[in-house]
């Protein structure tokens, strides 16, 4: 005990994290369109590989709801064997980014884009899992999911089995929402686990006609990618998917690390090493043909709140997942699919920052607009392009705000008109500058003072020179200073 002074706290915390992670690992796998066991494999790797590596001491990694939509699209487009290749190369890319010390640059990403990304994922996740909760097949596109809701609701209400399935899913969500309000020891049990156990018990006891998890066995589910699978790398779409996996998983992990650091007073995250730890984990997951991993804020916060003191807690949570997958895999076959859908609907709802959006709209409407546009773009187009749209908007907004220029025109009635420019003159402000200059009298000399400009880009410099030549052709010449 002297060598491991915090072992008792870490073991207790690891059990809590295991109980939180178990239903989420299975639910994310099923929602991603892969065997349930692959979610457990990713959770195990997150504990035993990423958990052992340096970076962040208390954050926990595993399959995340935030990548569910992207994984489902990848599996649907390229097949399950290609998933291992995609995750493997994404992991190697993360390792390279960490080695190049790019981890800290992810902290510079716009918070509005990150929150918009999570909100968009949440919306698509909720829309897809509402179909799953009713036992119906969900359309492929995000817009199609939303437009198909009325018809799906009519089908669910008309069929006995669909209605029963929807009731189980809705009951799971209600239990999760109310469970944490219970006093005493019961409230200490993770809500997701309690909801799944209750749903499983009710459907089994009353023979409710709902679909359950299909169990194929741990060893049968692990399918390392063969040589033929690497042929998908010739597809440009696959390369875009790999880039999306790497960037989004890295951003979510490091954003989570910053949040977890605020929850405890222990060692701070070393971002480049954490990025390499995530890359190592995803490389192993790719070799096993499993789901991609990220650091997950729900499991990480549960780890901190349960009293974890060292990385031993997250490693042990991987041990418990491994023991469960090895000894009790048949237990998964009892879990009703609508209960897992309910867990992910709840998770998707929590990804949408409703309160933050309201306060952001009151204080910084530009940032709120970026958040909303990013989320809507992800729903309408896809995850990768939606994030790129959000990043582009963020860059444009920053450029616009940083290119503030002030024009002062002083006309004393006699002598030259004095024009004083200060600030940052970029092409974004060029229309305003030219409108002011072109409104000046053509028959008067002009003194244009640029000495107070902090920045003058090529477009503005060229435009000012051309304007001075035109103005000087019909009037006394323009005098430029600066």
UniProtKB/TrEMBL annotation:
Q: What topology does the record note for this protein and the membrane? A: Multi-pass membrane protein
Protein's UniProt keywords contain Transmembrane helix: yes
Output the InterPro entries linked to this UniProt entry.
SLC26A/SulP_dom, SLC26A/SulP_fam
- Membrane spanning stretches: 12-31, 78-100, 112-132, 162-179, 191-210, 238-260, 319-349, 369-396
Q: Where's it found, cell-wise?
A: Membrane
Q: Which UniProt keywords apply?
A: Membrane, Transmembrane, Transmembrane helix
Task: Quote the Pfam families the UniProt record gives.
Answer: Sulfate_transp
- Keyword Coiled coil set for record: no
Q: What is its main location?
A: membrane
What is this protein's name?
Answer: SulP family inorganic anion transporter
- Organism lineage: Bacteria, Bacillati, Actinomycetota, Actinomycetes, Kitasatosporales
């Amino acid at each position: 005990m002297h060598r491991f002074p915090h072992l008792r706290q870490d073991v207790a915390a690891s059990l809590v994290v295991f109980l939180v992670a178990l239903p989420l690992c299975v639910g994310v796998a099923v929602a991603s369109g892969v065997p349930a066991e692959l979610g457990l494999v990713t959770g195990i790797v997150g504990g035993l590989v990423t958990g052992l590596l340096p970076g962040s001491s208390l954050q926990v990694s595993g399959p995340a709801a935030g990548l569910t939509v992207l994984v489902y699209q990848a599996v649907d487009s390229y097949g399950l064997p290609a998933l291992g290749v995609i995750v493997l190369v994404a992991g190697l890319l993360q390792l390279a980014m960490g080695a190049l010390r790019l981890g800290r640059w992810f902290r510079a990403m716009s918070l509005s884009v990150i929150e918009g990304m999570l909100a968009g994922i949440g919306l698509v996740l909720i829309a897809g899992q509402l179909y799953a909760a009713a036992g119906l097949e969900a359309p492929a596109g995000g817009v199609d999911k939303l437009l198909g809701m009325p018809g799906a609701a009519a089908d669910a209400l008309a069929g006995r089995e669909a209605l029963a399935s929807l009731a189980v899913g809705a009951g799971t969500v209600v239990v999760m929402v109310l469970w944490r309000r219970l006093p005493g020891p019961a409230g200490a049990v993770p809500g997701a686990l309690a909801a799944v156990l209750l749903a499983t018990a009710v459907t089994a006891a009353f023979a409710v006609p709902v679909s359950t998890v299909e169990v194929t066995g741990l060893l049968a589910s692990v399918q390392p990618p063969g040589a033929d699978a690497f042929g998908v790398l010739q597809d440009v779409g696959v390369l875009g998917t790999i880039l999306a996996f790497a960037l989004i998983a890295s951003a979510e992990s490091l954003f989570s690390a910053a949040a977890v650091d605020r929850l405890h007073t222990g060692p701070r995250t070393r971002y480049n090493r954490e990025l390499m730890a995530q890359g190592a984990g995803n490389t192993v997951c790719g070799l096993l043909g499993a789901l991609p991993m990220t650091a997950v804020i729900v499991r990480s916060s549960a780890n901190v709140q349960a009293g974890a003191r060292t990385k031993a807690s997250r490693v042990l949570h991987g041990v418990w997942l491994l023991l469960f997958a090895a000894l009790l895999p048949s237990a998964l076959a009892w879990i009703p699919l609508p209960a897992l859908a309910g867990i992910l609907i709840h998770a998707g709802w929590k990804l949408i920052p409703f309160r933050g959006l309201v306060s952001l709209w009151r204080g910084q409407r530009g940032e709120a607009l970026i958040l909303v546009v990013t989320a809507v773009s992800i729903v309408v187009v896809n995850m990768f392009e939606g994030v790129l749209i959000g990043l582009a908007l963020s860059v444009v907004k920053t450029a616009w705000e940083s290119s503030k220029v002030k024009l002062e025109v002083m006309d004393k009635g006699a002598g030259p008109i004095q024009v004083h420019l200060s600030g940052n003159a970029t092409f974004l402000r060029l229309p305003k500058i030219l409108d002011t200059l072109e409104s000046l009298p053509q028959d008067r000399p002009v003194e244009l003072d640029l000495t107070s400009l902090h920045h003058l880009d090529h477009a503005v410099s060229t435009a000012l020179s051309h304007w001075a030549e035109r103005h000087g052709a019909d009037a006394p010449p323009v005098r430029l200073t600066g």
